[in-house]
Structures are given as C-alpha cells and as structure tokens.
Design brief:
Blueprint lengths: L1 H4 L4 E7 L11 E8 L5 E8 L2 H11 L5 E6 L5 E7 L7 E6 L2 E9 L5 E6 L5 E7 L6 E6 L2 E8 L14 E6 L6 H19 L15
Antiparallel strand pairs: 1-2, 1-12, 2-3, 3-4, 4-5, 5-6, 6-7, 7-8, 8-9, 9-10, 10-11, 11-12
C-alpha cells in the first residue's frame, strides 16, 4: 500500500456503487475509491461478499459480521487487505500486505468516546484513535496525547463540492514523520470505523451507537 499512502498528507475514501475501471474475482458489497486531494484515483477497496449465505449472515448480524476488505492499486493489483472476524463487541480488523501482517485496529470500551487502538505487527498497542465527545464525525490518531493524524467523515476539504453524499472519509497525516506502516493502518482503519460506527444507520451517525459496540 506504499503506492497509495506515499508521502501524501491527505487521502480521500469514497464509497461508490459502480466501477468501470477494474475487474475483481468476486462479488463485492461495499466498494470504495481511494483518491488524492485533486480527485485522482490512487486505488480501490472492496468488501468480499462471499455468496448467498454470506448475504444472509450480513443481514442478520450487521456490523458484527466477519468481513474481508481488499485494497487494490489503480490497475486492479491487490496491495493489501483488512480481515475482520465475527464479534458482537470490541470489533477488530487485522491488516495484511501479501502474507505479512503489519498490524491491527481494535475497538475498545469507552463510555464518552468512540475509541480504537492501533497495534503494530507484534500486537503491541502503539496509538489511539479517539472520537471526541459530541464530535462523532472525527477520529483523532493520538500518540502520547499528541495528534498525529485523523479520520473525518463528511470531510470538508478541497474536494467537498465534488461529493454530494455523506459517504466520504478524509484521512489526514498531520505528523511529518509518521511511519509508513502507521499510515497504512490508518487507511484500513477507515473501513472498520465505517462498518462499526456508521453502516447500520445509513451513514448518519447516532449517539446511541456508542461505547463498546
């Protein structure tokens, strides 16, 4: 995923229904475009649907379901994937490049915030992803209390006039020396945040979807 994150300071992730640019080897449910600030396509991502049985389980289990999200380059080559196991609470997504695990994003219990932790390849917690109280659209990436990046839904950056729907996330890397592995983890964290915090309420967010869910 180095080709996507590179030395960029901002990346957009937009959910989309139609692709004409690439072919993938499986039916997908959630599809995303990954773009730079100028609207140029950097890559794509798709949740693997898994057939009719998976559709039934998805409708029954909602955001608790198991899911795999594949990340592609602009030519359709797979760059990485996020794997989310089935869980009722404390949802998790492990991140891989090829056969190598580079880390994970784990939801944690919190009463007043939406909280996730970011783990390195060995499982060590290295960063915290936190949605401040009453600011449910913004998730700050914190290292020892200092903001080093963020994920923002309904991102209002340079391209806000291009997108008329609310299913747009902005990924910002605010620390100049943020490691590439952390950037990749923050990019894939978008999909876990979307599944667990916004999907069941059609992207509107809800103060009831709080705490450990």
């Amino acid at each position: 995923m180095d080709a996507i994150v590179g030395d960029r300071k901002k990346i957009l992730v937009r959910q989309t229904k139609e692709w004409g640019e690439i072919l993938i080897g499986f039916e997908s449910r959630n599809r995303f475009e990954v773009l730079d600030e100028d609207g140029q396509v950097l890559g794509y991502a798709a949740e693997e649907a898994g057939g009719f049985t998976a559709v039934l389980l998805r409708n029954l289990l909602g955001h608790c379901r198991a899911a795999t999200v594949h990340v592609y380059g602009p030519g359709g080559e797979e760059l990485g994937r996020g794997v989310k196991p089935f869980r009722f609470f404390f949802h998790r997504m492990e991140v891989f490049e090829g056969g190598r695990k580079i880390g994970a994003v784990q939801r944690r219990f919190s009463v007043l915030h939406r909280k996730f932790t970011v783990e390195d390849a060995s499982g060590q917690e290295v960063l915290t992803l936190l949605s401040p109280f009453l600011r449910i659209w913004t998730f700050k990436l914190l290292a020892e209390g200092q903001e080093v990046g963020r994920i923002s839904k309904r991102w209002g950056g340079l391209l806000k006039e291009m997108f008329t729907d609310a299913d747009v996330f902005g990924v910002e890397f605010t620390h100049p020396r943020l490691p590439q592995e952390v950037k990749k983890l923050l990019l894939v964290a978008v999909f876990l945040v979307d599944f667990t915090c916004f999907e069941n309420n059609q992207g509107r967010g809800s103060l009831l979807d709080w705490g450990s869910g």
